[in-house]
Amino acid sequence: MQRGSFQLMKSVNKSNILNKIRTSEPISRAQIAKETKLTPPTVSSIVKELIEQGLVRESNLGESKGGRKPTMLHINNDGFYVIGVDAGPETVECILADLSGEIYERTFSKLKKPITNNQFITILKENIYKILKTSTTKPDKIIGIGVAMHGVVDVETGTSLNAPNLNLKNIPIKTRLEEEFNLTIKVENDARAMALGESWFGGHGDLDSMVAVNIGRGVGSGMVVNGKLYHGDQDIAGEIGHMTIDIHGKVCECGNRGCFQTFVSGEGVAERARKKVQDIDVSDTLTGKKVFELAQTGNDTYIDILKETGTIIGIGLTNLIHLFNPSKIVLGGGVMKSEKFILPMIKQAIEERALTPKAKETEVAITSLGEDATLLGAVSLLLVELFEAV
């Protein structure tokens, strides 16, 4: 769907009605009018347009409360599709998903470093073209492309300002992809995209506020308040991986010393393990994944390292609770595959350190979206545009 066509589909009333159907389906026209405070003729007119556009479908009749049974409305989930891209720092993954988040196509490429801005953009394009080539979906049914990019992103211009793990700056992702595909393009920091995906597809209910934290190659977080991403004044809200924990600590990829992610990222876990292991041959081959595998065998040394990691993460999340006070914290990323060793220690650290009894009870959960959390977050960037009023 070309950019202009997508914009024509949007209006405040249309988005309000779409979102009401999405969150309350099945729902009748009369109930929509009552809950949105729009007039019945306005609702009927807009619903007619949404059905004609293929965004909404009718179902069997609902229950009667005296009089004719109402026709119920649903989102036509497979009427339109979104391409979602998880870009870096080690791979580019791409999916085609419908409006419910069901994935139909998938592509994958490894990134080889060093890499230039142009080479990076080329890899993005190649993966998107693979999706378009293998899919039987008509191009006019694709409403846009969402890109979840690691590092600092200027959301308004869709520019990757700083991708430290790739050593790249000022990548004009939105501009270059719009030129190539003539689709609506949304670019967001990967951790914030993950947070939005959790809010959209994670089944967390109607929360006032939620934080999603991704702990893997690096550490980032996204904050969702009343269904909206919080960016901060300079688009760096949520960069908890770069909170300074030890002013004399290891130099981080960002250039500062003792950042949170130097302790709890996959490499941070591996480095702490290397310092405790006496066997040099073993130490040289240790990775975060290997530490988890060795802990799984019952090796107390590696179990203790993962438990220590959980305590450190818990301290970082306690700081987050004191700053942001979210209703829920959702954790994802490769390090959290060690959930059985790490999560109890996270909860214990919060219980020991949070300021108030209610803060100690802040819910902490592992993402139910698995490794697709960020990809579905990229998809949700377009769905927010479609379903929520601006």
Largest sheet entry: 5 strands, mixed
Unreliable stretches: none
The number of distinct β-strands equals: 16
Strand content: 15-25%
Name the assembly state: single chain
What helical percentage do the residues reach? 40-55%
Q: What is the architecture of the largest domain at the second tier of CATH?
A: 2-Layer Sandwich
Count of helices? 15
Name the CATH class of the largest domain. Alpha Beta
The Cα radius of gyration reads: 23 Å
**Taking strands numbered 1, 2, ... along the chain, how are they ordered across the largest sheet?**
6-5-4-7-11
**Superfamily (CATH H level) name of the largest domain:** ATPase, nucleotide binding domain
Number of domains: 3
Mass-distribution shape: globular
Q: What is the CATH topology of the largest domain?
A: Nucleotidyltransferase, domain 5
Structural classification: alpha/beta
Separation of the first and last Cα atoms: 20 Å
Q: What's the pLDDT, averaged over the residues?
A: 91
Kindly describe this structure:
The protein has 390 residues and is of the alpha/beta class. It folds into 3 domains: 3-75, Winged helix-like DNA-binding domain superfamily/Winged helix DNA-binding domain (Arc Repressor Mutant, subunit A); 79-197 and 374-387, Nucleotidyltransferase, domain 5 (2-Layer Sandwich), CATH 3.30.420; 205-367, ATPase, nucleotide binding domain (Nucleotidyltransferase, domain 5). The protein is built from 15 helices and 16 strands. It has helices at 3-8, 12-24, 29-36, 40-53, 117-134, 173-181, 190-201, 261-264, 266-276, 280-284, 288-296, 300-324, 339-353, 357-360, 373-387, and strands spanning 27-28, 56-61, 71-75, 81-87, 91-98, 103-110, 142-149, 152-154, 159-163, 168-171, 185-189, 209-215, 219-225, 228-230, 328-332, 363-366. The strands form 4 sheets. A 5-stranded mixed beta sheet has the order 6-5-4-7-11, sandwiched between helices. A 5-stranded mixed beta sheet has the order 14-13-12-15-16, with helices on both faces. The protein has a 3-stranded antiparallel beta sheet with strand order 1-3-2. A hairpin with a 3-residue loop joins strand 4 and strand 5. The longest helix has 25 residues, at 300-324. It is globular and about 75 Å long. The two termini are 20 Å apart.
